[in-house]
Amino acid sequence: MNQQLAGYAPTPVTARMENHGRSMLKVAMQTGQDLFARTGSMVAYEGFIQYEPNPPALRQMASQWLTGEGAPVMKCSGDGLLYLADYGADVVVVNLDNDALSVNGTNLLAFDAHLQWGVERVKGMAKFAGQGLFNVQVAGTGWVAITSRGTPIVVDCGRGEDETYVDPDALVAWSPNLKVKGKRSFKASSMIGRGSGEAYQMAFSGQGIVVVQPSEDSTDRLRTRG
């Protein structure tokens, strides 16, 4: 291999999921250890891996997906190495140990198929967002990969008594045991031409973490389903 490219070659497998650089996920696939991944996220693979978009077991949940257009999920199975990415977004790998994570659907890249998951209404937010906000909760013991538009910050909400406030457009994920409520405010950006009127933040309190990305792109917003 050309020495200038050798530094980008795959590293030995050390875990079920791991990063290859900041923006690519490497998954060690084995028969019987299926994976759910965002449709269209596959960028390369080695070995024999099959893909099934919107498998029958997910069709009921598909009707509840955040976009209202069906679950953008494919089932991956087989043996080999699978590489996933999402338009150059940073990839964060989480190994759940009998735990749960609530994730913005647009930031969910892949997760072990044996994990429990479903679309959940974000409690305490309905009066601030019409019919309410919906997220994807993943629970159990296994691997999850999420994306962030830039390097995220992980805030430990249990470090003090103060609440943690997050712009919904920048929210990636949080511990589902946290208490959530909304707070209206006048968004300062409305004074410099980026919007107008009231905005709201999400306030988190309790023991757990909140993952925030350095982006307020409205395409990453928690989706509202009416």
Automatic annotation (TrEMBL):
InterPro entries reported for this sequence: AIM24, AIM24_sf, Trp_RNA-bd_attenuator-like_dom
Lineage top rank: taxon: Bacteria
Pfam families for this protein: AIM24
Protein name as catalogued: AIM24 family protein
